[in-house]
């Protein structure tokens, strides 16, 4: 998905799955903490400021260094992560968020679940501490539909791309 945008780096600033990266890092931190102290809970006080700082980065103006022209921002995130990260905030109804053009890449679920299963199995094999149980409900089909319906209900003009 990002390849065409990467080839036009003077026009686009790409922010690729920062919430996903943060959640994975927080999970790894929790695993370390649980090993030393299983009763220690996750530090959720870090979560909201991080979510807000990520969206501050999305909304700020980015410039091409050679021409000093402003760039458009391509921000993408997996629907499961976006929905879980923004459920406690008002990000999804923020005027800046609503001004964005929202695009949904749709794939045949049979192909996408198989692809994600293959990727997850690879990760499970490299990181045994994660276990190795694949849960197809975590693929994000339901969350994609929730995000789509929310934006549609807010009268957003959505772009839907058949990615198959």
Description of the structure:
About 50% of the residues lie in helices and about 15% in strands. Strand 2 (about 60-65) and strand 3 form a beta hairpin. The protein has helices at about 5, 20-35, 45-60, 80-85, 95-100, 110-125, 140-155, and strands at about 10-15, 60-65, 70-75, 105, 160. The strands form 2 sheets. It has a 3-stranded mixed beta sheet with strand order 1-3-2, with no helix packed on it. The protein has a two-stranded parallel ribbon with strand order 4-5. The mean pLDDT is about 75.
Features:
alpha/beta, three-stranded mixed β-sheet, two-stranded parallel sheet, 26828_t:CDS:1
Number of strands: 5
Give the averaged pLDDT, no decimals: 75
Helix content: 40-55%
Task: Give unreliable regions as ranges.
Answer: none
Q: What structural class is derived from the secondary structure elements?
A: alpha/beta
Sheet with the most strands, sense and barrel status: 3 strands, mixed
User: Topology as H/E string?
Assistant: HEHHEEHHEHHE
Strand adjacency order, main sheet: 1-3-2
Classify the beta-strand content into a percent band.
Answer: 5-15%
Question: N-to-C terminal Cα separation, in Å?
Answer: 12 Å
Q: Kindly give the count of domains.
A: 2
Summed up, the helix count is: 7
Apparent shape: globular
What is the radius of gyration computed over CA atoms, rounded to a whole number of angstroms?
A: 18 Å
Organism: Racocetra persica
Protein name: 26828_t:CDS:1
